[in-house]
């Protein structure tokens, strides 16, 4: 009998032809999450197994952060499908469990077995009643559910189920570029895209000296939180100062935000193209601020041809905050550092900007040149999920 | 030199001193400054605090740095008293506390608070029944040390917590853990407030910690610009904090192994000294091995201490903090004035060697024979 961690795929199992591509990616992602640990991973179409002698708890806590997993459980693999042999092993396992009532749930993927699942459950139930004293069968809400899967060559037994994150394995859907500010919404948007199998890179706009080093550190910290789910993350840091100052000096203030967003979209689209990202992702939510009215969104979106995915478009702020708290970005997002969207804020930003006016105003600044420069000089950082403490030596 | 006064203070660890020096030199910025130097110092300080929080399984914002454990005790006890005086004015403490706790309690009594002293049994353990009977609806705080500084009695804080919270869930629990941290395992979650200092765990002098559970609020006793922490305003002592964090990390590794080693040294001394009729070993089954208290019949402890000094052997009479002529802890446990009037505290460390202990025993016996002979 071997104690193993095994995984159920959930939504993945709806993939027919290319399921192996998905499973292989999932295996890769799990290996990545468990790098440095001694594990062996193998899989079939129904289950993926992690064999290890390392700490099960540590592996579980890491694997529960991998997308594409419906359930992750600790189970026991017993050689063969013989009911009596399996029963004897279960008897040993039950010594660790304190329970009075139980039920057996059976599944049979080895179709050579003639008995039905119900018959198998009954038989095992009878065996336990006979061999383990003072137990009772209870179908509704028993203390312990004994799950048994009769597979080809072996039998899998497990008692508890841990829910996985669901979604698709990261990277199975290609790459996207997340416009990451220091706020609450964009990290949540990133998380939701990763969940759908998109491997993200992120772009952040800084405006030193108007924005501080701390604001940048905050974004790096947020990116690091996402890196946990994304198998590390590439962060593009674009110096936006010249563009922002040019806009502020030359363009009517009610259009500041609209034009600024258009510039950010343009730069993001260029970086996305260079990095083979197929979509832009951002944290816009309909109606939340002036730049997120439908007219504004149209006027801003108009400058790019790449699809812009807005996972939070129809979410209420409070629901977004809930997710931010769950993925542990909220506390970082609310740190009070100015980012480039909060400096130079006009008193009355235009709510219904017209595209014609945008085009006309943009002629007032040499934006193509400025954009070229900012993209050319932008900083690329690779951020790993595990923060290496730069002070480790002192501590 | 044979140093057997580790419970008074410890020598700073080499690596800890190195951290202190390098931090002072390379991270001198004020963590409250907005510029890069300030931010760098702040990040380092936050990292150090995070490490402490992780070691004790608490939150970073539950840590306040103070100058000394005495200051931390003041902040904890006065802070609770001043914050909650409208709810109640009754405080309970034990007879085995550090003098700073008594000094604060005396002050609180002078401004209208009522202080009860819970009894302990013959082994030094808090009398649970007495504790239970003392707790009232207006009891705002119970302060009981984790390990007594004179006799080393270790209190079962988890049980004490259960008793207190059952009688009055609003009563807060403070524990002076100065003699416990780094020597035996401690659990901050047994209490609402805890104090300990750096210089008892091979850290620098001048830095201590107050742990305050985030659900507890205290009235500050110092006022200033509290950018980092309202309870301790002023420029944080970054080098001390970073060095403290390192000292904590180093002192918390192998605690159990070290404790067993110290236990063997302790037993060796007990075996050697208990042969003499004029020496009483003040040790109960709850004493931690790092602290060994003995009483001398007919010899003044201070005379003995100075005689040992001739051999370059250093230890304490009572405690360094309470060099009165009477050990209140020994009195509280044995209720014997003779026994309490001449006590020596031998405090051991994992740094103590068997050879040092042998030499100490030899010198001790020589002095003992000489001094006790004077009275024959």
Describe this structure in words.
The complex is a heterodimer of chains A (395) and B (376). With 395 residues, chain A is α/β, with parallel strands linked by helices. Chain A has 2 domains: 2-166, 2-Layer Sandwich (VC0802-like), CATH 3.30.2130.30; 175-383, Rossmann fold. In chain A, 37% of the residues lie in helices and 22% in strands. Chain A is built from 13 helices and 15 strands. Chain A has helices at 19-33, 56-63, 83-94, 117-131, 185-195, 213-230, 241-250, 256-274, 294-301, 317-326, 330-333, 355-362, 367-376, and strands at 2-8, 39-43, 47-52, 69-79, 101-108, 136-137, 144-150, 154-158, 162-166, 175-179, 199-206, 233-239, 279-281, 308-309, 379-383. In chain A, helix 3 packs across helix 4 (117-131), helix 5 (185-195) runs parallel beside helix 6 and helix 8 crosses helix 9 (294-301). The longest helix of chain A has 19 residues, at 256-274. The two termini of chain A are 44 Å apart. The model of chain A has no long low-confidence stretch (mean pLDDT 91). Chain B has 376 residues and is an alpha/beta fold. In chain B, the strands form 3 sheets. A 7-stranded mixed β-sheet of chain B has the order 2-8-7-6-5-3-4, with helices on both faces. In chain B, strands 9-10-13-12 form a 4-stranded antiparallel β-sheet. Chain B is globular. The chains are: A alpha/beta (395), B alpha/beta (376). The interface between A and B is medium-sized, with 9 and 15 residues.
Q: Please report which band the strand proportion of chain B falls in: under 5%, 5-15%, 15-25%, 25-35%, 35-45% or over 45%.
A: 5-15%
Q: Please estimate the helix content of chain B.
A: 40-55%
Number of helical stretches of at least 4 residues of chain A: 13
Average of per-residue pLDDT values of chain A:
91
Count up the helices of chain B: 12
Rounded to the nearest angstrom, the radius of gyration of chain B is: 21 Å
* Major β-sheet annotation of chain A: 9 strands, mixed
Report the top-level CATH class of the largest domain in chain B: Alpha Beta
Helix fraction of chain A, binned, reads: 25-40%
Distance between the termini of chain A: 44 Å
Q: Main beta sheet of chain B, described?
A: 7 strands, mixed
- Oligomer type: heterodimer
Give the spatial strand order of the biggest sheet of chain B: 2-8-7-6-5-3-4
H/E element order of chain A: EHEEHEHEHEEEEEHEHEHHEHEHHHHE
Q: Look at the structure and give the CATH class of the largest domain in chain A.
A: Alpha Beta
- The appropriate CATH architecture of the largest domain in chain B is 3-Layer(aba) Sandwich
On the 0 to 100 scale, the average pLDDT of chain B is 93
Annotated CATH topology of the largest domain in chain B: Aspartate Aminotransferase, domain 2
CATH architecture of the largest domain in chain A: 3-Layer(aba) Sandwich
Structural class, judged by helices and strands of chain B? alpha/beta
Tally of domains of chain B: 2
């Amino acid at each position: 009998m071997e104690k193993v961690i095994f995984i159920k795929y959930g939504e993945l199992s709806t993939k027919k032809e290319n399921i192996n591509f998905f499973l292989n990616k999932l295996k890769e992602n799990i290996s990545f999450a468990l790098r440095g640990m001694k594990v062996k991973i193998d899989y079939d179409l129904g289950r993926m197994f992690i064999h290890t002698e390392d700490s099960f708890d540590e592996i579980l806590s890491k694997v529960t952060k991998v997308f594409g997993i419906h359930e992750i459980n600790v189970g026991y693999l017993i050689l063969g499908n013989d009911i009596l042999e399996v029963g004897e092993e279960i008897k040993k396992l039950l010594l660790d469990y304190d329970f009075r009532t139980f039920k057996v749930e059976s599944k049979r993927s080895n179709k050579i077995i003639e008995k039905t699942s119900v018959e198998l459950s009954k038989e095992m139930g009878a065996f336990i009643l006979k061999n383990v004293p003072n137990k009772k069968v209870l179908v509704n809400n028993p203390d312990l559910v004994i799950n048994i899967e009769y597979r080809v060559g072996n039998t899998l037994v497990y008692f508890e189920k841990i829910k996985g994150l669901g979604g698709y394995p990261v990277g199975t859907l290609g790459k996207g570029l997340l416009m990451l500010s220091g706020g609450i919404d964009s990290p949540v948007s990133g998380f939701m895209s990763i969940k759908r199998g998109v491997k993200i890179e992120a772009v952040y706009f800084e405006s030193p000296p108007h924005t501080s080093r701390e604001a940048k550190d905050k974004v790096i910290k947020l990116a690091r939180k996402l890196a946990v789910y994304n198998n590390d993350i590439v962060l593009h840091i674009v110096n936006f100062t010249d563009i922002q100052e040019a806009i502020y000096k030359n363009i009517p203030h009610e259009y500041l935000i609209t034009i600024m967003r258009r510039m950010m979209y343009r730069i993001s689209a260029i970086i996305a193209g260079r990095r083979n990202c197929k979509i832009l992702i951002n944290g816009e939510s309909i109606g939340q601020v002036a730049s997120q009215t439908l007219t504004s969104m149209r006027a801003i979106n108009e400058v790019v041809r790449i699809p812009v995915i807005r996972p939070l478009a129809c979410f209420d702020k409070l629901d977004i905050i809930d997710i931010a708290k769950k993925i542990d970005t909220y506390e970082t997002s609310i740190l009070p550092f100015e980012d480039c969207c909060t400096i130079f804020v006009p008193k009355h930003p235009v709510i219904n900007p017209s595209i014609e006016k945008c085009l006309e105003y943009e002629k007032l600044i040499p934006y193509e040149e400025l954009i070229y420069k900012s993209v050319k000089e932008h900083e690329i950082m690779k951020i790993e999920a595990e923060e290496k403490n730069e002070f480790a030596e002192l501590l | 030199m044979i140093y057997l006064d580790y419970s008074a203070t410890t020598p700073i660890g080499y690596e800890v001193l190195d951290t202190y020096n390098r931090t002072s030199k390379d991270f001198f910025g004020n963590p409250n400054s907005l510029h890069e130097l300030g931010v760098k110092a702040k990040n380092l300080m936050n990292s150090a605090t995070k490490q402490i929080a992780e070691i004790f399984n608490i939150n970073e914002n539950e840590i306040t740095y103070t100058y000394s454990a005495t200051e931390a005790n003041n902040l904890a006890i006065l802070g609770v008293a001043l914050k909650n005086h409208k709810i109640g004015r009754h405080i309970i403490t034990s007879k085995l506390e550090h003098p700073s706790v008594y000094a604060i309690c005396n002050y609180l009594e002078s401004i209208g608070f009522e202080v009860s002293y819970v009894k302990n049994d013959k082994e030094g353990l808090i009398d649970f029944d007495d504790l239970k009977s003392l707790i009232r609806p207006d009891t705002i705080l119970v302060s009981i040390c984790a390990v007594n500084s004179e006799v080393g009695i270790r209190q079962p804080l988890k049980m004490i917590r259960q008793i207190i919270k059952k009688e009055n869930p609003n009563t807060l629990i403070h524990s002076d853990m100065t003699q416990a941290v780094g020597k035996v395992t401690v659990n901050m979650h047994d209490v609402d407030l805890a104090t300990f200092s750096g210089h008892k765990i091979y850290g620098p002098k001048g830095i201590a910690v107050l742990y305050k559970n985030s659900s507890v609020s205290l009235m500050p006793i110092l006022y200033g610009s509290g950018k980092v922490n309202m309870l301790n305003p002023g420029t944080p002592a970054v080098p001390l904090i970073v060095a403290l964090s390192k000292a904590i990390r180093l002192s918390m590794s192998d605690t159990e192994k070290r404790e067993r080693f110290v236990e063997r040294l302790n037993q060796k001394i007990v075996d050697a000294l208990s042969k003499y009729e004029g020496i009483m070993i003040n040790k109960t089954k709850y004493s931690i091995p790092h602290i060994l208290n003995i009483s001398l019949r007919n010899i003044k402890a201070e005379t003995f201490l100075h005689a040992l000094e001739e051999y370059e052997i250093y230890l304490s009479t009572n405690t360094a903090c309470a060099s009165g002529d009477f050990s209140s802890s020994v009195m509280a446990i044995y209720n014997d004035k003779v026994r309490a009037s001449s006590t020596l505290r031998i405090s051991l460390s994992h740094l103590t060697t068997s050879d040092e202990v042998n030499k100490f025993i030899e010198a001790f016996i020589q002095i003992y024979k000489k001094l006790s002979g004077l009275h024959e």
